[in-house]
Amino acid sequence: MTKIFFLEKPTLKYSIFILNAFLVIGLSFFPTPDLPFFPKTPRWLEQLNFALSIIFIFPLVYQAPKLFRKTGIEISEEGISENLSTFRENKFLWKEMVQIRFARVLFMKYLLIVIQEPEAYIKRQNFLHRLPMRGDMKNFGTPVKIPIYTLNKDPQEILQAIQNIHQRVFEQIQSLKADPHFKEQDSL
């Protein structure tokens, strides 16, 4: 069975985490200077900053395990698996996919996978994932948006790998259908 795995750039992953950690944790404890020309920060604003730091530390802790696991996109004869966009692995089978295309938002590139039943897919997700998926459905026509700007390969290489493996799967299906002993089974 053919599998191709595109890894995420580790330096970018660590840089993003360190920047988030500094913004959430470091800035809340950054002292305000006592200079005559620099206005003193009100006490309530310091307390609000501290409270927001405590609240925003939870996504940072949630993001930490991603630093120590192998993240990327795997393209196989079964379909496409990815663990880039969320904190768990998503698998999309070839039979569920309708179309694959790219989108660019500012400097970020995304792989968009149009699936057969997008509303059913959205309903299977938890509440925090449903909200952005509905926005992606409205903006891109699909809830599946995989960030590929952090991968070590350019989008054309990824698309070429997808097309090659999909072509092999299609040829295998056609050869099976040509076999007189083959019976197509309906899935329930």
Q: Biggest sheet: strands, sense, closure?
A: 4 strands, antiparallel
Give the CA-CA distance, first to last residue: 26 Å
Mean pLDDT: 78
Question: What percent of residues are in strands?
Answer: 15-25%
Helix content: 40-55%
**How are the strands of the largest sheet arranged?**
1-2-3-4
The succession of helices and strands, N to C, reads: EHHEEEEEHHEH
Tell me the number of strands: 7
Rounded to an integer in angstroms, the radius of gyration calculated over CA atoms is 22 Å
Described by the principal axes of the CA atoms, the overall outline is elongated
What can you see in these coordinates?
- This protein has 188 residues and is an alpha+beta fold.
- 44% of the residues lie in helices and 21% in strands.
- It contains five helices and seven strands, in the order E-H-H-E-E-E-E-E-H-H-E-H.
- The protein has helices at 10-26, 43-63, 118-123, 127-140, 155-178; strands at residues 3-7, 72-76, 79-82, 90-93, 97-105, 108-115, 144-147.
- The strands form two sheets. A four-stranded antiparallel β-sheet has the order 1-2-3-4, covered by helices on one side.
- Helix 1 runs antiparallel to helix 2.
